[in-house]
Amino acid sequence: METVKLDELIRDEKKRKTIVEAMVTGKILIYPTDTIYGIGCNAMDSDVVDRIRKVKGSEHPFSIIAPSKGWIKQMLYVNHPDFLKRLPGHYTLVFKKRNPDFLSSVSGSESLGIRIPKHIVSEMVNEAAVPFVTTSANISGQEVIKSPGDLPNQIREIADFLIDAGELKNPPSKVIDLTSDEPKVLRE
């Protein structure tokens, strides 16, 4: 696993392009967000999504970092458009898929959780122009990861890159289900 310091990505265009290319080509990244450390990959690559799911020991749906708000409107039913104004931010918004089979390895249900963190990682996902899996970089059921030093060995072993931003001090994202007429907060 190659470690890249966050400040290197901010000032070194070549490093940033390397990470963007890794996002497109199916590499697994551990990365900071505006909340906690996540692990992810190109959501269109079901084999790599399945590798992450297996190592985490999770059958729960994953969320994605969307490349843009336009992408969200194109791929999902946005029946509460005012909530899009909360992005970028520390929210996971759950929308109904236009095609129930879309990204089925990420979420086997008819809905999909969407994030656009207020973070440079979102800018790189936008540059990559692919939906990017975002799930906590922990083993399912264990504490979320706020520091690279706390990463479980199993997670480290499958990752190609770690973007190190040091210790993060924010809570996980607030999750709001927007698949019905009334928004429902699933996690504060």
Beta strand count? 11
CATH fold label: DHBP synthase
Low-confidence stretches: none
Range of strand content: 15-25%
Mean pLDDT: 94
Note the main sheet.
Answer: 11 strands, mixed
Shape: globular
CATH architecture: Alpha-Beta Complex
Write down the Rg: 15 Å
Q: Note the gap between the termini.
A: 33 Å
- Taken in chain order, the helices and strands follow as EHHEEHEHEEEHEHEEE
Give a description of the structure.
By secondary structure, this protein is an alpha/beta fold. The protein has one domain: DHBP synthase (Alpha-Beta Complex). It is 27% helix and 24% strand. Strands 1, 2, 3, 4, 5, 6, 7, 8, 9, 10 and 11 form an 11-stranded mixed sheet that branches. Strand 10 and strand 11 form a beta hairpin. Helix 2 packs across helix 5. The model has no long low-confidence stretch (mean pLDDT 94).
Task: Produce the secondary structure layout.
Layout: E1 2-5, H1 6-11, H2 13-24, E2 29-32, E3 37-40, H3 46-56, E4 63-65, H4 69-75, E5 76-77, E6 91-97, E7 111-115, H5 120-128, E8 132-136, H6 153-158, E9 161-164, E10 174-177, E11 184-187
Parallel strand pairs: 1-9, 2-9, 4-7, 6-10
Antiparallel strand pairs: 2-3, 3-8, 4-8, 5-6, 6-7, 10-11
Helix pairs in contact: 2-5
